[in-house]
Amino acid sequence: MPVHWFFMRVKSAKGIWTRNLYQLKREVDSVEKAIKRYLPIFVLPTLAAFVIGFIAPFIMGVGLSFCEFTTVKDAKFVGLSNYVKAFQDTIFRHSFWYTALFAIVSLIVINVCAFALALALTRKMRGTNIFRTIFFMPNLIGGIVLGYIWQLIFNGILAKYSTALALNQWLGFWGLIILVSWQQIGYMMIIYIAGLQSIPGEVMEAAQIDGATGWQRLCKVTIPMMMPSITICTFLSITNGFKLFDQNLSLTAGEPSKLSEMMALNIYNTFYGRSGWEGVGQAKAVIFFVIVVAIGLVQLRATRSKEVQQ
Fold first, then answer.
1. What pLDDT is attached to residue 175?
2. Following DSSP, what letter does each residue of 273-303 receive, concatenated?
3. C-alpha angle with apex 253: 252 to 257, nearest 5 degrees?
4. Are residues 290 and 159 part of one domain?
5. Taking the model in full, what pTM does it have?
6. Phi and psi of 160, rounded to 5°?
7. Does residue 310 lie within any of the structural domains?
8. In terms of domains, do 261 and 140 share one?
């Protein structure tokens, strides 16, 4: 084949490739323009559902917290009296401190155990996938069901000592800690495993070559590199601890004498169980929302400030 024919074919192939690439770019641009043009149509259903299902009820709820009512249609504005009654309610104040203590203890127990399990299950050993599945499975069971199951277990054990969960608020407290830890440790473990697997192997090898011990690698390398996962798990643990409702309802129901009643259950009982206190229950819900949001934002800022770039 003459040399000039070879170069002509190469030039022709290059021209075809260039034209195909240009045509592909035009098609991609046309698709992007179509997506931008019809984006509001796709976003509108989700946005409407969010506004109807969350934003509107939230705004209405904040407004009703300043009213006395039995139904939405007969609301009567009473100013801040509902908030005054909420703060004067000793049971509500007790439920706040009880919930705060529960959130702190459950935060420590869940995250320490989940992190330890994640470290163990990321080592090279047989059966790690089976163990991950087993530890994660309790998270799939509903809180109400878990509460009744563990109530039978605890009361069966405590009956030998002539007591029960409903007779002691601290038995109920530690019962809730065990229940929630058993349910959530597996979920947090999965997040920690993902964080551990994202740590570059070169970093750990460099630390080992430099003579760092296992404890030094854990404190100086692993934990700082795991801060994004720690941020997520800490946030979930704190907010879940404050929002706990169904397990509290089924395990202790606030007994004895509402001393084991947490904030969410107290708000529920105030709104539905005390006639004429619907507005107070709504005010408690607003206070509860502000507390959880404030604590969540403080925690996120505190932990994100310690994250390192990989």
1. 92
2. HSTT-HHHHHHHHHHHHHHHHHHHHHHHHHH
3. 95
4. yes
5. 0.81
6. -70, -20
7. no
8. yes
